[in-house]
Amino acid sequence: MDNVALASLFRKEFEWCCVAAGESVAIVTEPASSPSYVAASLASLAGMGAQPFQVMLPLTLRTDDIAVVAQGSGASTILADFPHVVELLGKCGLVIDLTLEGLVHSPETKTVLAGGARMLWIREPADALARLLPTAERVGRIDRSVELLRSAKEMIVTSKAGTRLRANLEGALLTGSRGFCAERGRWAHWGQGLAAAYVASLDVDGEIVLDIGDIVFPFNRYVDGRTTLRFREGFVEAIEGEGLDAALIRDYMARWNDRNAYGISHVGWGLHERGLWHALSLYGSVAMGLDGRVFEGNFLFSTGPNHAAGRQSGCHFDIPMRNCSIFLDGTPVVIDGVIVEPSIRRAGA
Ligand SMILES: [Fe+2]
Hints:
This protein is of the alpha+beta class.
């Protein structure tokens, strides 16, 4: 994509973020950040009358991370040694995160958001950014999905592969990920489109059976053999399966030496009609994998960090599954991977 086209694409996203004339916008980068994304951000923001500036921070390899390869955890450490920069970012109107690892789960992000700044992570390839831009119609379905979760006490998930999970949603923290941030203190990732509940309760039991084609992030890997995760009282107590998937998940989780790694985090469903299940097979690790996380009708669940339950962890799995059925208080929302709830079903789908 040429620079002019890229700047024009970025402007569309920044308009969704309600960037205002005179607004201070920090672009957080590291040496490996995309130079064309920096240029497109600067050009489009300046064209909107905002006051963008770039912050370049060194990527320091930390010796205390040797137990795991933590790529894909979304917890970049580039701000860890720069409290004065964190303070500055919190005073900006918008902070654009162009780091590869992402700051979403970094402790400094809480401080930046608490300062009033909103944050936008831009990470996917340019064609995916264009394809996954927000639409008003989708925002409506995401917001209505959050309302469905808000009025529900319990989620049950089943699948023909053998999944049978029950999660108590009382006290859950609900999020509608719309792919842009327009309000103070909000965080977004360009390309998102899903609804999720961070489960607060320990009343979560049953089995999740990963089937061929489900995706395990951060491995950026499609499952190729059935793998069972058994949950008891909110935690994974066993990971079973003969294939590589089970072995990898078991090893990675255990290496963190962290009980919280096994806790349930969020449960929800994908709502992005332009998210493509197959995209990961072509993008590989070039993408962070939003397509796989947001494609319409998936059941996305996660383990590890969970603010609603008061659990922190560096070990964070996002696992979108196909062909699942999701029920809220007994009412079907998704059947075999297809959204059936009328209030969030797309016209013509
Ligand atoms: Fe997650």
